Amino acid sequence: MKLPAQRNPLENRPLDVSGGVPGAGDDVLLPEGYVLRLAAASDGAAVRALVFGILQEYGLRPDPNGVDADLSDVNRHYFALGGWFAVLTDPRGIVVGTAGLHPVAPGVVELRKMYLSKEHRGRGLGRALLLQSMAEARRRGFRRMTLETASVLREAVALYQRHGFVVRPGNPCVCRCDMVMERELD
Q: pTM (2 decimals)?
């Protein structure tokens, strides 16, 4: 089932990061010209280029036929399963960030493919991606969020920890990851 592309421009206005839960989050203001919207099929090449480039930046190997195959069809791998996938575009309309939610069990969602271009880090955009992902998960009724990451992604690990994620014992499913983290969403 192919879902129609939906635009959800949040340009230069506060993002609702409460997920429908009063007091669940602070408003997040995107810098002028940045837009966070649902991914469309036409974003595929840009999303893959961004994610693969960032993986290589940190010495991690992209796996387009394995763990990264979900990027070949976000409609099928995210939206059709009750998940979500968003892209962040800069003022020129270029995809500079991504974040996805993939349901893994009743009430549990995995944060996947949260990446932000090096040139756009340090502006609160990673925080905005994370908080919006958490809010969207709450809106969809998820109560817990998990993620797998690599310790070499130090900035991301620190961001997750600042927002309540804790390292969970266990082995990640993804071979390039060495950490499993989680947090409750209530």
A: 0.85
